[in-house]
Amino acid sequence: MNDKEYEELALEIIDMLGVAFHFAGAKSQHIKELIDIYINEVDNMSDNEEFTQAIIITIINNVKIKYPQYFE
In the beta sheet, which residues pair with residue 26? Predict the structure, then answer.
């Protein structure tokens, strides 16, 4: 993969994360902010922690608990 392909893939992943927040009940006007919050949560993870689907679900659930005002 070249740099442009990686950039396109990263944008697609961000879009999918927005969809995940939508289906998690996020208010549409807060999805961009929730993506930033999610990225910060990932940055705070231990480098030794394996990044799996279960971890992604846990992070989204934790964001819902910490920021209930952004969800319906």
Answer: 71
